Amino acid sequence: MENRVRRNPFLRIIILVSILLLVTATVAIGMFYYIFGINEPEGLSLASWPERFTDNFSLWMANDNGNISIEEIGLEYLDEYGLWLQVIDEAGQEVFCHNKPEGYPVSYTASELLSLPASAYEQGNTVFVNHYEGSGETWSYLIGFPYAIGKHMIYYNGENVGRLSPVFRMAILFLLCAVILFVVYYGFWLTGHLGRITKGIGDISLRAYAPLSERGVFREIYGALNKMDQEVRHSDKVQRDTERVRSEWIANITHDLKTPLSPIKGYAELLAAGPLPDRDAVQEYAAIILKNADYTERMMDDLKLTYQLDSGALPYRPQTVYLVRFLKELIIDIVNDPAFTDRSIEFESNIKEIKVQLDPDLFRRAINNLIINALTHNPPETEVTICVNIVKTEVCINVSDNGTGMSDAEQSELFERYYRGTSTKEKPEGSGLGLAIAKQIITLHGGTIAVKSRQGEGTQFIIHFPLEQR
Q1: Alpha-carbon distance 185 to 24, whole Å?
Q2: Interval 23-76: pLDDT, tens
Q3: Nearest to 117 by CA among 128, 107, 108, 104
Q4: What is the SS3 assignment for 159?
Q5: pTM over 0.70
Q6: In what order do the strands lie in the sheet with 394-401?
Q7: Measured between alpha carbons, how far is 156 from 151 in angstroms, rounded to an integer?
Q8: Rounded to an integer, what distance in angstroms lies between the CA atom of residue 15 and that of residue 21?
Q9: CB contact at 8 A, 88 and 140
């Protein structure tokens, strides 16, 4: 039963409406007794109970040779309910009383007796009046009740009300039918929308979703479904692109690993085959083998480092560093490299010196990757400039060149882990991880890195990181 209710929204609506009607009826009955009920000794009764008790009290009254007498059971009821009684003869004089409070008169005029049936709650009592006739004599009797009971009488045209009674019954029946039809219509309407939403969710999972019109009460839900579909499609595209780039990178890295392994294997075979060549040839072969082994090791180190940074497995050891001196020494080391001795590298700074907290080894790796990337993938005459300054509470480092530049498409994927730019076709050195590693290291230091480039005008890498780091 529970599963059937969960699967059938219409049945759920019927149950909900039934519960609402039951709650409404319960509240209405409760309010009715709260307004029209009193707590008398035998329990909760309607506020008309005092009037009925007063009318029936005459059953316990009798004419005893011209004197009024009250049966014992009547007096017991008065005592049990906390009521009082006063009997008035035709002359308006009191002839009998029981439990009557002080302050009530012993005689009444005709006008006073006529006003008592409409009297309000006074002196802690509401007074009800009736008459007893016996053996040709008439007595009026008053009974006081300790309840604040309102007395109101409504006058209406009985003939018209009788004529309208069938109309009211038909109106109530029509209203009930209208409510039932509305509930049925609303149920089918809601079921249709819920079915459309359920189908939309299923279509999104199957990648067969058609955008829904964002109108009506459910426009926010339809909008959320449309947005979810867009995000899922975008995620799928990113996953496909990532997988494509990964596949290309694996193919490239496999090729790049074979490139240094081929000369290593070839020259090792020459040395193993014998006879040994002269000393100069052996040294030449060994230098080639060592160079290619170093290249292979760098590629493997890059691959290991990027995954260590990604998983947080690499220790981060910040310390106080003089940044200007640190960058100058890094540039000197690059200039002293035989591969870049004839290249133009400039350093600029509008500050004399500044102390920052960073991990020297990791930060050196990041800046070194940016500079080497600019030197490697640009013509020999390209000028590379490193500039450092302070912007508010951040350090800004610019690594710029006047080389060939990049397209917008290349810039959008430049920091992807498996991306290798178009310029690497001519110079395939490197693992394609250098810029991804640089970004990961800058992010680890709480900073950001961005790229600005235009084809034929050069490239600029902009690094920002805070002076005070956690």
Answers
A1: 21
A2: 888 888 877 777 767 777 767 778 788 888 888 998 899 888 888 888 999 899
A3: 128
A4: helix
A5: no
A6: 344-349, 383-391, 394-401, 458-466, 448-454
A7: 17
A8: 10
A9: yes
